[in-house]
Amino acid sequence: MTLIQPHIRCSKDLEVKYAILPGDPKRVDRIAEFLEDVEDVEFNREYKSLVGYYKGIKILAMSTGMGGASTGIAVEELKNIGLEVLIRIGSCGATQNGIRIGDLIIPNGIVRDEGASRAYVEEKYPAVPDTELLFNIIDSAQKKGFPYHVGITRSHDSFYTDEEENIDNYWSKKEF
Questions:
Q1: Which residue, 17, 107, 130, 172, is most buried by CB atoms nearer than 10 A?
Q2: In terms of domains, do 106 and 60 share one?
Q3: pLDDT over 80 (residue 2)
Q4: Contact at 8 Å (CB) between 111 and 174?
Q5: Residue range(s) defining the domain that contains residue 47
Q6: Where residue 171 falls among pLDDT bands split at 50, 70, 90?
Q7: How many CB atoms lie within 10 A of CB 134?
Q8: What is the full DSSP assignment across 153-173?
Q9: Phi, psi of 52 (to 5 degrees)
Q10: Domain boundary among 34, 63, 91
Q11: What's the pLDDT tens digit per position in 48-79?
């Protein structure tokens, strides 16, 4: 009997190692446009998934919803079914000059100003990507000629607190 993960509703039967993780379920359909032999897998809660092939490599595309808590659940369950490389994609705000809509933001470190990551590791532990994956993403952006920015980003839980303007002003003064 194959163990199906309770939230993403997927199992090891997918036999996939790589995932692209947008937040919005509608973006999974957009990713499908770049894949071949696409098959829908599941859609439970905010977790919509499909598999397909990109240049012969099997890829899972799965939405994670908004925020660290739902992403944390997805990452844990994907790890349980054997995924090894997870790339989170999506939109983000930018508070620094020179960043345009559509530019790629490639974090080389993340300020953990949210709650979910604290359940996994203490605050002083840095949030940094896998170095080889980071360099591969930068190399791909360069080769494709995409405008991109590499630097420290901030992850947070709330968008509409009374202090958002002050918080944004504080972080916008920090340089990449």
A1: 107
A2: no
A3: no
A4: no
A5: 1-91
A6: confident
A7: 16
A8: EEEES-S--TTHHHHHHHHHT
A9: -165, -175
A10: 91
A11: 999 999 999 999 999 999 988 999 999 999 99
